[in-house]
């Protein structure tokens, strides 16, 4: 089996969708899993994919939008209740505050478990939070992978992540509009997990509804279409591109056709629980 793989845990968006869980994926390096984003349903998806949440000791947040963090409280407390006693969380500025708020929200619950039940609080109240500098850079992580980040274009501070081990690499774009620095950053990656949230069937391009039109024009400044995703993959010369972050209305066939017309490498329309390995 390959030393480096990614399992798509959630390929959805902020809109609840039975077929697509909230945004999350797990990168596995040799046998170390690293969770990237933690959308709604992540704990269940991890378990369905054969991972115990207790075994995930590293979590990277691309950004702190609700759809990428909805599952965090469950992951934090659930993983700890299964025996995890250490955790490192890497994310943009604001990650410490977010984590602290979650602890505060469950203050009484945590006091009961650590006090009355006597469960050691290691892995819960001593989480190692690494906040990324705005310009990105490399993350000193203690994992076998070399982890680097760059800022991308979204409406809150958002980072793309590159995981590299033995000259094999997986890049995750994060939520982003097209940006040249991502092309450089993803150069010759084996796998690029790419935001392709905007699709022609998503919300009315030609809608008369002013509100929808407004949302549509905003989305174009914050996400990619499959064609834009393909252009990034093509210019970067990656081997495989896995598109993700789909709205419930996405038409997978169209998404695939639109991307395949531009990118000549392997095009994958991401599906929940799909595992993709880097070739040896
Ligand atoms: Zn976002
Ligand atoms: Zn998102």
TrEMBL record:
Biased composition, class Polar residues, residue ranges: 1-10
Region ranges (Disordered): 1-20
Transmembrane feature ranges: none
Cofactor(s) it depends on: Zn(2+)
CDD domains: RNaseZ_ZiPD-like_MBL-fold
Keyword Acetylation set for record: no
Keywords: Endonuclease, Hydrolase, Metal-binding, Nuclease, tRNA processing, Zinc
Pfam families associated with the record: Lactamase_B_2
SUPFAM superfamilies listed in its UniProt record: Metallo-hydrolase/oxidoreductase
The keyword Cell inner membrane appears for this protein: no
InterPro entries in the cross-refs: Metallo-B-lactamas, RibonucZ/Hydroxyglut_hydro, RNase_Z/BN
Sequence ranges assigned to domain Metallo-beta-lactamase in this UniProt record: 34-246
Quaternary context: Homodimer.
Protein name in the entry: Ribonuclease Z
């Amino acid at each position: 089996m390959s030393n480096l793989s990614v399992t798509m845990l959630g390929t959805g968006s902020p809109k609840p969708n039975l077929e697509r869980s909230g945004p999350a994926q797990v990168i596995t390096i040799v046998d170390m899993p690293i969770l990237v984003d933690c959308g709604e349903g992540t704990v269940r998806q991890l378990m369905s994919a054969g991972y115990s949440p207790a075994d995930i000791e590293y979590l990277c947040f691309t950004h702190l939008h609700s759809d990428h963090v909805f599952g965090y409280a469950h992951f934090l407390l659930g993983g700890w209740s299964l025996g995890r006693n250490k955790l490192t969380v890497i994310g943009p500025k604001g990650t410490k505050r977010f984590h602290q708020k979650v602890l505060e929200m469950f203050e009484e619950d945590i006091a009961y478990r650590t006090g009355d039940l006597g469960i050691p609080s290691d892995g819960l109240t001593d989480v190692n939070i690494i906040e990324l500098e705005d310009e990105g850079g490399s993350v000193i992580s203690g994992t076998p992978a070399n982890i680097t980040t760059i800022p991308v274009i979204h409406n809150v501070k958002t980072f793309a992540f590159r995981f590299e081990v033995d000259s094999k690499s997986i890049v995750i774009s994060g939520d982003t509009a097209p940006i040249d620095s991502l092309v450089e950053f993803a150069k010759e990656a084996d796998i690029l997990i790419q935001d392709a949230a905007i699709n022609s069937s998503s919300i009315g391009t030609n809608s008369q509804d002013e509100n929808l039109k407004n949302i549509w024009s905003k989305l174009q400044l914050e996400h990619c279409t499959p064609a834009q995703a393909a252009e990034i993959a093509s210019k970067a010369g990656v081997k495989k591109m896995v598109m993700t972050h789909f709205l419930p209305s996405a038409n997978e066939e169209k998404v695939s056709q639109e991307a395949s017309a531009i990118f000549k490498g392997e095009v994958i329309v991401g599906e929940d629980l799909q595992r993709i390995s880097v070739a040896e």
